[in-house]
Amino acid sequence: MSLSLSALERRHPPPRRKSCAACTKAKRRCSNTLPSCARCSQRGLVCHYAGQPPGLTTTSILDPLPTVSAQSVMPLSDLEIDAAPTPSWLDAAWHPWSPFSPPPPPPPLACIAADDSVPPLIGLSVDGLAPADGSPHNRLLPDEGAPVVEAPAASLIRLPSAQLPELETRDFDRIAAVVRSRLAYAIDKIKDAPRLLLAENQLPWSHPMLYRDGMPASMQGALSSCALYVAKNAVNAAVVLSCIHAHLRQLLSAPEPAALPDLLARTQALLLYTIFAAFDPDPTSMRAVLDEVQDALMRSAKSLLSLTNFSSLADGLYPEAPSLYPLAESRAMWEAWVLMESSRRTVMISFFFSQLYRVLVGIPAHACDGMLYINASWTMSPALWQALGPVDFAVAWRRQKYFIVKKADVTAVIKEGRPRDVDEFSRIFLTCMMGIEEFKGWLLSRGGDP
């Protein structure tokens, strides 16, 4: 009696399809779907099964860097920080250096250290970058005689065309070690931005008097969203998030402004929405729009970069002793400094946070091609930053108790600075560059409190 086809299949089942090469290498479960498994489709990887005909092999449609959906990455609050570091592809991407010695040529944007040496976290350097000729913001801003460098027409950050290695579990262990030793302070301060803006009308990158004459509509919506976000709880979450999404959609649908004050406000607003989305623990709420708002933030930050003067603020281009009376000169100088210093800091923190988030969730950070850098230059001075009028500003300037940090070179700060010389914005970067414990030790050695 002959067996039925069903019986034959039960006795001699066809071989099961093995995991694809990418999942096998990463030791991950494979969905075994064709033409590409779920994991490879999500990460933009080439999916190939052993014995598969060449015609069925899929290639990545994401060129040049895989994009990971915000819903597919772990919330930042879920990141474990107890495991020991393990060498990985992260080692090749991070280039540490010491601020105690002269800095090397500008490193890639926002490199994060993987060990105990000091990294150029902001990795920013475009010398002589200044507003285009004829810009009204050139009148009161120093340029040091440096040539004007126009913003590149192409993308500011060029991505490598080669497929990047996959992130493995041990890489998250390495990330956790970096978070614990270097990034925790910066993360806490950035995460606290919505509450701080509501309570003090300022941020480490937004001067308290920046919007003294009126707040653009983009920041009005963001400020309202901050109040809603801070008040969000399990009961009102749905209504709160609906209102925040409405403000965000209104901002995204508006054309990008051309004037520096309005563009600065738009960039700061987008940064706040990005912070909402990145740190929201509910993956079905704000994190659902993270990719979209991050892209908008980067476009706005690049436009802001082209209008921002990163030249030194010293070298005799401003009067060494601004007049206390009459105040016309000092008032004009103070107003220009408030606008441009806020712009410099906003550009830097926008690119820094974008790279920081990518590293935290395990997405390979953007790489520069060696010619496009940002000149990381800001004024380190609590007295100047906290000056609420031209008189206080002129007094602080005449005392010359400030540092100009350029290209992440903090050598002068380490050697000559005192704890009272370090403002909150500078603390964010110094803790990342030096390490949190190293920075605490430096403060204590100079008679300050950690």
From TrEMBL:
Residues 19-49 form the Zn(2)-C6 fungal-type domain. It comes from the Eukaryota. The keyword Nucleus applies. The keyword Glycosyltransferase does not apply. SMART domains: GAL4. Keywords: DNA-binding, Metal-binding, Nucleus, Transcription, Transcription regulation, Zinc. GO terms for molecular function: DNA binding; DNA-binding transcription factor activity, RNA polymerase II-specific; zinc ion binding. InterPro entries: Zn2-C6_fun-type_DNA-bd_sf, Zn2Cys6_DnaBD. This is Zn(2)-C6 fungal-type DNA-binding domain protein. It comes from Niveomyces insectorum RCEF 264.
